[in-house]
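Section 3.1: Structural characterization of target chains.
Under the original work plan, the team committed to producing a structural model for every single-chain target entering the pipeline before any wet-lab resources were allocated. The record below documents one such target. The sequence was received from the expression subgroup and is listed exactly as submitted; it comprises 216 residues.
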Amino acid sequence: MSSKDLENSESVKQSVSERLLMLLKTRGELQASDAGKILGTTGEAMRQQFVKLAKEGLVENKAITQGVGRPAQYWVLTAAGHARFPDTHADLTVQLLRMIRSSLGEDALNQLISTREAETLKNYQQAMQGADSLEEKLGRLAAIRTREGYMAGWEKQQDDSYLLIENHCPICAAATTCQGFCRAEREVFSQTLDANVERTEHILQGARRCAYRIWL
């Protein structure tokens, strides 16, 4: 599933406000005029929608200087806006991880992560059966990750490498509590795709999304 396919599938039956939030989540900062072109309406109509969302605390406006002239006005999600895309069972997950760490120790927590990694790898590799090319594998992996809540897509780069993009992390709270989950993901991707994988953007380090450069 490409990034555009993801946006199209997610936007079905959504309100304009919900579609704007999805656009900011999957594309990052946008001007009202750009949002209007994407959604087939005017920039002024989108500006009014953004102002409405800003009053709800879901988006905010920021000025970006682009050469000579007045700064361009862009809209971005606030923390509350990002929170509209839920972190799956965040509080319970964090509580359980802390209990395992305090009661059973770090080794037990690492064993839990290793078990999860092995099970995930097994399922992903089964899903790759019959896929002959890296692009076909990427498409399948992105579809699986999207079903799991990661809003994933992929893009081919000019140097013939690929970028696997995850616009959301449904286990962000767990990964923040124990970053072993993130380390395990990169290795799972590498073995699933039988390719080199390098993380280039990381939500836990302040990026808008997680992204992985992939090459043979």
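Residues 9-13 have pLDDT under 50 and may be disordered.
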